[in-house]
Please model this.
Amino acid sequence: MPISVHDLMQLLCRVSEERKMKAAFKHSGRGALVAGTTAFIGGLVGGPPGIAVGGAVGGLVGAWMTSGQFKPIPQIILELPPVEQQRLYDNAYAIIRNLDWTDTAQLIALVMGNTGIQEQLLGVLTNYITSELRAEIKYEN
Model:
C-alpha cells in the first residue's frame, strides 16, 4: 500500500523519537546547499514570491545546520526541504513496501512492535543523516 511522504516522515519521527536521537551538523557547506536548493525550488514553484518563501525556509534550516547545536531528529526530518524528504522517503519506503497495512496508524503500530523493522529504518535514517547531511548523531539516555 502506498504511503505519503508526510506520513512516512511521521513514522521516521516516531522511531527516532523512541531512541531520543539528536544530531548536530559538522560542515557549514551543507547548510548553504540546503538554503540555496530550497530557494531555487521555491522559485520554480512560485516565481519570485516562491524564492522569498523558499529562501526564508532554507535560510532558517541552513542557519541551524551551521550552528553545531544538537537538535532532535524529528525536528530535523520535519524541517527538511521536500527534495530531501523525498530522498529519505525513497530509502525508507524500500523497507516497508512489502508490509501489509490498511492505514498509517496501523503501519506505525506494526513498525513500533517490530524491533527488526525499527532497526532497519534507523539504519536508513542514520545513514542519511551522517552521509547526506554530514551530521553527528547522539542518543540521550
Remarks:
- The chain has two domains: 1-21+72-132, 25-69.
- The longest strand covers residues 21-25.
- The CA atoms of residues 46 and 53 lie 9 Å apart.
- The two ends are 35 Å apart (CA to CA).
